[in-house]
Structures are given as structure tokens and as C-alpha cells.
Amino acid sequence: MKAINKTAQKIFDKLVALIPKGETAVKVDNTDGTFMAVHVEKLHSSHLGDVYSVAHYFVQMGDMCCDPDMTFVVGYDGRAYPLSFEIQGGFGARYEASVRWWLNETRVSTTKEKLDGLAFSILVLLDGGRIDIPGMTLIPGPHPEDKEYHKEQCQNWWPDDEDIGGALHEEWHK
Q1: Residues 92, 96, 98, 100: what is their CA dihedral angle, to the nearest 10 degrees?
Q2: SS3 content of the chain, % helix, strand, coil (to 5)
Q3: From CA 123, how far away is CA 48, in angstroms rounded?
Q4: Please, which residues have CB within 8 angstroms of residue 49's CB and are 6 or more apart in sequence?
Q5: Which residues of 101-110 are buried (b: 16+ CB within 10 A; e: fewer)?
Q6: Whole-angstrom distance, CA of residue 137 vs CA of residue 162
Q7: DSSP 8-state code for residue 145
Q8: DSSP letter string over 21-70?
Q9: Dist CA 117 CA 106 (whole Å)
Q10: Who has the most CB within 10 Å: 40, 61, 77, 83?
Q11: What is the pLDDT of residues 85-135, one digit of tens each?
């Protein structure tokens, strides 16, 4: 495991030092809301040393999400070593940004054009067409009796073992 660099260590040490004595966490907002506050929390002690979380939090669709949440262990040598890096709001945040973008888009004028653009943007997200969001595996989950019912009705049915994702946005305008 490699320790964080000296500059990052100085910042980390300053953040941890802000945790009040007798407490396990602190919220640091020194920009009066211009940037998201940083939350620093001592999670627990382990055989490797004390484990801390450093995170930004925001509310998305009523849920508290981190963007990102990083954990570090402070080894017995006093240096911080990264343990994890997690972003919870990836897809939802991109979806919400797409909604806002298409709501304010002025190059198209009708509601249908805006909804069409939004649908295409969401399909791009699902297909992995953004560098920061991986493609999603999309496997339909039909009721076990659907296939037989649709066969009897001479109708098509959804497969229950096939990934239908990957090229959804390309199919949208065909």
C-alpha cells in the first residue's frame, strides 16, 4: 500500500485536526456554500491504524449520497494510506444533469424535441457512452409465465437471459 503524497498528507492532517476533542466527526464549510462542505469522520480503529472517511455529501431524490467518499487508514508511521474511493451519485447525478440541460436547451423549441433529446441522453448513459459512467447490463425480468402466454397469443416476448443494452441510443433514431 502506498501512502498519499506530502502535499495531500498536510491537507489530510489539517482536516483530521479539525475534529473536536471527544468527537468523531466534523463538517468543514469554509466557502459559505460556494463549494460542497467536506465531512471528516473517524470510522474506527483497526489493526493497521485509525480509519477515516473524507467525503462530500448531497441529497439526490431524497437520499443522502457521497461524491466522493474516500477512506484512509493512518498507519503507525503517521502517514495516511488510501483504502477506498466511492461515488454513489454517478448515474443519478448524470440523469438529473441531463434533465436540467434539456429543460434549458434553446436550440429545440417543442416539448417533443426536448423529451426526445432527454430520452436519447438517458440511453447514452445506459449504454456507457460517457467516460465516467460504465455501460449497464440490461436484462429484462419477465414473469415466468410470460413466454408461454405470448407464444399462445402469437406475440413477441422479452428474453429473460439476454442483455438488451449496449446500443440502445443507436437504435433510438432508426
Answers
A1: -170
A2: 30, 25, 40
A3: 44
A4: 73, 74, 75, 76
A5: ebeeeeeeee
A6: 9
A7: T
A8: TT-SEEEE--STTSS--EEEEEEEEETTEEEEEEEEEEEETTEEEEEEEE
A9: 12
A10: 40
A11: 876 656 666 777 788 788 888 888 899 999 998 998 888 888 887 766 778
Query: What contacts 24+ positions apart, CB below 8 Å, involve 52-60?
Result: 52/12, 52/16, 52/80, 54/12, 54/15, 58/89, 60/89, 60/92, 60/93, 60/96
Q: How far apart are CA 163 and CA 147, in angstroms?
A: 17
**DSSP annotation of 143:** -
Look at the block and give the residue holding cell 489539517.
14
**Is the pLDDT at 141 greater than 80, yes or no?**
yes
Please answer whether residues 55 and 39 qualify as being in contact, where contact means their C-beta atoms are separated by less than 8 angstroms.
yes
- Rg (C-alpha) for the chain, rounded Å, is 23
> Which cell numbers hold the place of 78?
503517521
Quote the cell numbers at residue 46: 483497526
Residue labelled with grid coordinates 469554509 = 30
Q: Which pLDDT value is given to residue 24? A: 94
Please tell me the pTM assigned to this model: 0.53
C-alpha cell recorded at residue 134: 460504465
